[in-house]
Amino acid sequence: MEPRQSVDPFEVAFKDVEELPPDSPTADSMEIESQIQTPAIVSTSPAVIAPAGTNASTGNNEDEDEDEEDDNVDINIRNISYKSDPDKAARTQAILSRFTEEQMERYEFFRRSRFKKSDMRKLLLSITGMRAVSEPMIVAVSATAKMFVGDIVETARAVMTDWKDSGPIRPCHIREAYRRLKLEGKVPRRSVPRLF
């Protein structure tokens, strides 16, 4: 008797999409294509839900304005100059010159992506219970979170090549990447053990 594998609902949905004829567009694929063409619209931060009885629109409008202004900046990665360290500039240019178009596009998205300061401030306030959080703390946690997400994506890509999968990263790849990073000791452990 063959062991039965559990079925992931995300995998089932992905297989349903694969079964469509290749030249029949779906509404979801058109939405995805429009989001890929306009990356500034895509938010990398989770939605913050306001508690009942509060106005969700209140917040730091200055932080939101800064985030929107920063999103509109268009950077040409190949023309970045490092005035303080010419050796670093040479190494970076040597690496960037070897990138394929797909790798360069991914690198540019990674460079531009970041978490909103206002969302990170709200998250840190809820975690620490403090009344105010300093700007350097927000920057440090945002940078750490971005590096962690980068590690997860990089490991998920390695998982895809190991499994000989193609296409977008799926939840099963992310779970396996997290498992591998945890085995390598790159995922921080809980300071307080779980009770259940």
TrEMBL record:
Which parts of the chain are coiled coil? none
* Residue ranges, compositional bias (Acidic residues): 61-72
Which SUPFAM superfamilies does the UniProt entry name for this protein? Histone-fold
Q: Which key words are in the record?
A: Activator, Nucleus, Transcription, Transcription regulation
Q: Which GO terms describe its biological process?
A: RNA polymerase II preinitiation complex assembly
Where is this chain's protein located in or outside the cell? Nucleus
Pfam families given in the database record: TAFII28 (PF04719)
The superkingdom of the source organism is Eukaryota
Keyword Lipid biosynthesis, does the record have it?
Answer: no
> What GO terms are given for molecular function?
protein heterodimerization activity; RNA polymerase II general transcription initiation factor activity
Region spans: Disordered: 39-72
Q: One GO cellular component from the entry? A: transcription factor TFIID complex
TAFII28-like protein domain span: 95-180
The answer to whether the entry has keyword Transmembrane helix is no
Where would you say this protein principally sits, based on its record?
nucleus
Q: What does this protein do?
A: TAFs are components of the transcription factor IID (TFIID) complex that is essential for mediating regulation of RNA polymerase transcription.
Similarity annotation: Belongs to the TAF11 family.
Q: What is this protein called?
A: TAFII28-like protein domain-containing protein
